[in-house]
Write a structure and sequence with these properties.
By secondary structure, this protein is of the alpha+beta class. Helices cover 44% and strands 9% of the residues. Strand 8 (310-312) and strand 9 form a beta hairpin. The relative contact order is 0.21. Keywords: Heme, Iron, Metal-binding, Monooxygenase, Oxidoreductase.
Length: 430
């Protein structure tokens, strides 16, 4: 029904959506400056999407929540898959990827895994997360200053956690990290991204088959034991299990990895805010919420298609048009928060949408929160004099679903010019 298109590799998270053409650079981290979405002042704007298609961008908090909570008038499933004509291929691409589906298929898939990401379940994981964080801090300290935080710490924590949770061999982390980065990179040809997506799907399907032969006490094993027999209409076939596993694997490390790196960057550049985090550990939960709101590391929520003519403010969005929500803009809306362009770790938690909203709200939000609540305080407690080991802005990843930095050299201890230029590329996170 729709002429709108979606990437065939759209498999990260609700907050893994399109960066519009009007916003070619990330929120800029310049010393002493804030950053803001590169959109206009209108609540609803017509912009160019990442693949050249026109989309409507919603920039206010209230309207954004309304769109994301209305799966009937704003559909994920009715978006066309770009360049995919075969119904069977479309089915396989969507199989298990609940982010591309509407109810009732979305409901069936989400219900299968919701119990794995409850607050209680994540609370039971916290001791293991603490151990993983401490182990990587030990390795950083043993390696010595300086290190690249995007190698030694930021991706290592969520990658190991999600590998253990899912039942994915940690030895394969470099492969899936590289493939995930390719899938969400808009600068690469669609065919390249599609091929890598197929490779990940094949890898996960083989892993599912291994778990069928020998189910372990991990998420994939439990899913196969509970929902993999095929005897119940709600059971999942191998394509669905592989698609769901891929979704959780990518979403389980990409967003948190970039939040840890960018959060460290902004805290090192705003020492007054870092001081609040260090001196008031009892407020770490609220501090993490403020970092999530302020950073809003995802440009746009995943695109939807209007299933009917919808009027937002004084703009009518025609049936069949694509719609996205600018999460950074919504999370700075004065209706949500005063002085939203400022980072204030003393701020009371807000009802932000960093994890999206509605039925596609990030399933792993409790896990991501726990990882950040543990990692940030322990990083700065271990290295109280942590500092950036670069003179200019880092190299930002911009044309991706989730923005971040390609490297973040940091140092600690006595300042030595030779140390500051030392090799930070040696692998620390083994």
């Amino acid at each position: 029904m729709s002429t709108s298109t979606a990437s065939t590799t759209d498999s990260s998270s609700e907050t893994g959506g399109a960066a519009p053409g009007r916003r070619p650079t990330p929120p800029l981290f310049r010393r002493g400056e804030d950053f803001a979405p590169q959109l206009g002042d209108a609540a609803v704007e017509r912009i160019q999407g990442p693949f050249g298609e026109p989309v409507w961008a919603i920039t206010t908090w209230a309207d954004g929540r309304a769109v994301l909570s209305d799966a009937e008038r704003f559909s994920r499933e009715q978006l066309d898959l770009q360049g995919v004509d075969s119904p069977e291929e479309r089915r396989r691409i969507r199989a298990g990827n609940m982010l591309t589906l509407d109810p009732p298929d979305h409901t069936r898939l989400r219900r299968a895994v919701t119990a794995e990401f409850t607050v209680k379940r994540i609370r039971n994981l916290r001791p293991r997360i603490e151990q993983i964080v401490d182990d990587h801090l030990d390795r950083m300290e043993a390696h010595g200053s300086p290190v690249d935080l995007t190698d030694a710490f930021a991706p290592a924590i969520p990658s190991l956690v999600i590998c253990e949770l899912l039942g994915v061999p940690y030895a394969d982390r470099h492969d899936f990290q590289s493939r995930a980065a390719t899938i969400i990179d808009f600068t690469l040809p669609m065919e390249t991204r599609r091929q890598v997506s197929l490779e990940m799907r094949t890898y996960m399907r083989e892993l599912v088959q291994q778990h069928r032969r020998d189910p372990g006490d991990d998420l994939l094993g439990r899913l196969i034991t509970r929902r993999g027999s095929g005897d119940d209409p709600d059971d999942l076939d191998d394509d669905e299990l592989a698609g769901l596993g891929n979704l959780l694997l990518i979403a389980g490390h990409e967003t948190t990895s970039n939040m840890l790196a960018l959060g460290t960057l902004v805290l090192l550049r705003q020492p007054d805010q870092r001081r609040l985090l260090v001196e008031h550990p009892e407020n770490v939960d609220a501090a993490v919420e403020e970092l999530l709101r302020y950073l809003s590391v995802v440009h746009m929520a995943l695109p939807r298609v209007a299933t009917t003519d919808v009027t937002i403010g004084d703009v009518t969005i025609p049936r069949g048009d694509a719609v996205v929500v600018s999460l950074p803009a919504a999370n700075r809306d004065p209706e949500l928060v005063e002085h939203g362009r400022d980072l204030d770790l003393g701020r009371a938690p807000t009802n932000h949408m960093a994890f999206g909203h509605g039925i596609h709200h990030c399933l792993g939000a409790p896990l991501a929160r726990a990882e950040m609540q543990i990692a940030f305080p322990r990083l700065f407690a271990r290295f109280p004099d942590l500092r950036l080991a670069l003179d200019d802005d880092p190299d930002f990843r911009t044309e991706t679903f989730i923005y971040g930095v390609r490297s973040l050299p940091v140092a600690w201890g006595p300042i030595d010019a030779a140390d500051e230029t030392a090799d930070t590329t040696a692998e620390v996170a083994r």
